[in-house]
């Protein structure tokens, strides 16, 4: 047996060599054994789980994009979760698969979204990776549009000279803007006489004044619109401008009306011309011939060659449309006409009197002249003005639209020129009225009475004694006076009573300015105009002046001023009795 002996240094060198070789092998195996290839790794890897979210990419707005991740390591059973910042609506129906997708949202500028996939396996290992998706806008160019107001009396895009015209580009739009608004407008004139000098051309509208010239003009314009991405679109338009001799005046005969026979028809025309050399304008009003000849008292149109005038509506038996035509002629011989239709109806049988007021008001005065600028006044409508125009047939007589007949002591009709009468019948309302005396008998105009009623009284009968009144009766109150007149049988009637508020007001003649407000040809001895009101009682209690639910007041009318008011029932007031009615 041979025994080999090694020195200590040789033995140590051999062991060291073997150890270095082992370490190198282990390091090589560890380097070759990892997954990878992802753009980034969270570092939260257990069990060598490695995720790759895919490459960065650019996607156009509105396009669908597919997401897919690659995973290695772990236990081989994975759950995927996709998220994005800013948020995206990611479709991912099966989380056991990496496949997902989204539709790129609409953007105005290129926008980056970070898409992240997180992966878990059943062993609890997790890993994630991200990719950057850039969404790029797809610009749709704007759409320029020009709208021009058209005239019914001229061909399309044809306009008179000397008029303001607005070219409107507000209907231009940017389809891919959230509000479809265009960013910039720019107008230019490409042909014809320059009309845009000094005009703002960067607005959505272009306002011009058409030129006045001896010859017809052609003007062309262009609108360029720009969107927020810098894309543009252009729209052009050409208009024709009439020569000054062909430019017609404009005319309006006013608005349609409805009146009764004999009422005022307001003829308020409007006429203009944009051509200075076409002045002055002349006017002519004419009425249609579809009404009976001579049916209107006086001339049908007051001043037929005035722009603002009036007519009296003709008398008709059935509702009739009467046309009034205004013809306007300029200095160049151009004539234009317009017609206003007036519905004229027969004057109905009135059931109550008109007010008697025929004056008309301006903003600072009263006048008898027709006031077209202030239409609808009392003095332009109703029975009073119809009577003034001679179109009311009365059974009796009376001022303005009032129609009265005198009655004698037996209630029989008297001639209109009779010297004495006891009562008056109102042929409009059918009411029969007491006539006051001035002879000291109990119907004398100067006697006054307190208000008293045992029945309809608002909860308070009133003042029975009539201590404030003056009369020939024991108790100067309204009820006692009614009983006295009925006991006498005035005009052969025994049903006299206090009038209602409306009945008494129907006698008011408000057109009488300097005397009592009643037709004294039929109602003498009403009283004297003075600083003291001529209060006449009505039968109506007043809701004002209520005490413990009882009406202490009643309504009365002042035949001096024409106003009404409520008076305490103990007040001394005059009385005019009434009976019958429609």
How are the elements arranged and paired?
Elements: H1 8-32, E1 50-52, E2 57-60, E3 64-67, E4 70-72, E5 78-85, E6 90-91, E7 100-103, E8 111-121, E9 126-136, E10 158-159, E11 164-168, E12 184-191, E13 205-209, E14 217-226, E15 232-241, E16 250-252, E17 257-260, E18 264-268, E19 270-272, E20 282-287, E21 308-312, E22 320-329, E23 335-345, E24 360-361, E25 366-367, H2 383-388, E26 404-407, E27 423-426, E28 431-434, H3 478-488, H4 501-505, E29 535-547, E30 550-558, E31 564-568, E32 578-580
Parallel strand pairs: 2-9, 10-15, 17-23
Antiparallel strand pairs: 1-4, 3-7, 5-8, 6-7, 8-9, 11-13, 12-14, 14-15, 16-19, 18-21, 20-22, 22-23, 24-25, 26-27, 27-28, 28-32, 29-30, 30-31
Domain Lcl C-terminal: 423-579
InterPro entries: Ig-like_fold, KIAA0319-like, Lcl_C
Protein name: Lcl C-terminal domain-containing protein
Give a short summary of the structure:
Residues 423-579 form the Lcl C-terminal domain. With 582 residues, the chain is mainly beta.
How would you explain this protein's 3D organization?
The protein is mostly beta strands and 582 residues long. Among the domains are: 158-241, Sandwich (Immunoglobulin-like); 252-388, Immunoglobulins (Immunoglobulin-like); 398-582, no CATH class. It is built from 4 helices and 32 strands. It has helices at 8-32, 383-388, 478-488, 501-505, and strands spanning 50-52, 57-60, 64-67, 70-72, 78-85, 90-91, 100-103, 111-121, 126-136, 158-159, 164-168, 184-191, 205-209, 217-226, 232-241, 250-252, 257-260, 264-268, 270-272, 282-287, 308-312, 320-329, 335-345, 360-361, 366-367, 404-407, 423-426, 431-434, 535-547, 550-558, 564-568, 578-580. It has a 4-stranded mixed sheet, with no helix packed on it. Strands 10-15-14-12 form a 4-stranded mixed sheet, with no helix packed on it. A hairpin with a 5-residue loop joins strand 14 (217-226) and strand 15. The model is unreliable at 1-46 (pLDDT under 50).
